[in-house]
Design a protein that fits this description.
Layout: H1 3-15, H2 21-47, H3 59-64, H4 77-102, H5 110-128
Length: 130
């Protein structure tokens, strides 16, 4: 299975409304985040080999912290800013995933699911350009 399969599956779920839509929307948000997380691993950990900058927290927090470990040099200031912005955006997706997976008393809307898929795809493209 590829990372892209996960994103494609999210898109497919968006086009096929389930009889249990509230669960489907939660799954879309969760899978979209995981697509982004594995793209982050592929690009920032494996390809660029940036180091974790946070030793506290779970594996997700530590992995996302690699975006703050961008080699800071004058020549690549724009890329450094992009990496910091991606850190913030992925952290936001992680919060939506946490809501979808653990906050059953809180509804997850179709707009949030659509946003999660759209944002995940954008982030993936930007990670590939780092």
């Amino acid at each position: 299975m590829s990372n892209q399969d996960t994103l494609d599956y999210c898109k497919e779920m968006l086009t096929n409304v389930s009889k249990i839509e509230h669960i489907q929307l939660r799954n879309i948000v969760s899978r979209a985040y995981y697509f982004t997380f594995y793209e982050l691993i592929d690009h920032v950990e494996n390809r660029l080999m940036w180091q974790e900058t946070n030793q506290k927290g779970g594996v997700h927090v530590r992995t996302i912290s690699r975006l703050k470990g961008y080699p800071n040099s004058q020549d690549n200031n724009e890329s450094h800013e992009v990496a910091l912005e991606l850190h913030s955006r992925i952290t936001s997706l992680k919060k939506l995933r946490t809501k979808a997976d653990y906050r059953m008393e809180q509804a997850v809307s179709r707009k949030v699911a659509e946003y999660s898929v759209f944002e995940s795809e954008l982030i993936s493209k930007e990670l590939a350009q780092l």
